[in-house]
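thread: overnight batch results

M.L. [08:02]
morning all. the overnight job finished for the chain we discussed friday. pasting input first so we're all looking at the same thing
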Amino acid sequence: MRIGAVIIVIWLVLGVVAAFERGYFKSDGDASCAEAGTVIVTVAAGPLNWMGVNPKITCDVPEPSK
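M.L. [08:03]
and the structure it wrote out:
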């Protein structure tokens, strides 16, 4: 059980490194659900990012009615 936890932590750390390399943590003041989703799936993909996986999320938030 302990080795599984260590593998998951290493996987997620590698995902954070990949997201950092792609510049996803730069603060440009424009945050959206698509950017947050892309960061989350990039971290979840872990080392697969260096094997050609480039996850992107798009989301459309409806405008409130007037």
